[in-house]
Task: structure prediction
Amino acid sequence: MKAYAKLRLNFQSKEELETIFRALAPEAAKPATPRSRVSLSIDDLSLVVFIEAKDTTALRATINAYLRWIYSISKVLSVIKAY
Result:
């Protein structure tokens, strides 16, 4: 059974959005596992993450990984911006 998810994450700045997009692009282009595929796109100030997985377990794992990476990158950017 295939499972799909589409995440739309809004950002305050184009710079943060583009930085996160560039950081995630290599992972989306060459996934660590064949159980899921991810495509990324930018729509105005939103990052759109489309995930296609072989099952709901793989879908959940992929969603969690991408959200964790996005959160981590955002936190690093906020610390850098503070200096």
Q: What stands out?
A: The longest helix spans residues 56-82. Residues 2 and 54 are 5 Å apart (CA to CA).
